[in-house]
Amino acid sequence: MLAVVGMVVQQSGIHFPGEQFTNTDIFGAPASVGFAANLQIFLAMAAIELTTFNQHYGDGEPGDLGLDGGFFKNKTPDQIKKLKESEIVHSRLAMIAFIGATHQTFLLGKPLLG
What we know:
The structure is a single chain. This protein has five helices and no strands. By secondary structure, the chain is mainly α. The protein has one domain. The longest helix has 30 residues.
């Protein structure tokens, strides 16, 4: 879901200050910012994956990172189950949307905005 939001923000022209951040092409932008910025992003993702590794492959429930923020506090087990199923469905739909947006931008040369 965040990938689609990232594509929309990138192509809308919202960016950090600096010439290297002005590229609105989602496939050209990683080359514009350089190796160091890409390395920082990779290391941040790797740190998140390593800190949540046991929750995915150990005793934890897949997808549950413990970041509900108290949202499940006053919910029944049936309501929690329904919310978790909805999250899975919406996540899968977002993956399909991301593939569609990527196809539209890369193969057809038509960005989401513009």
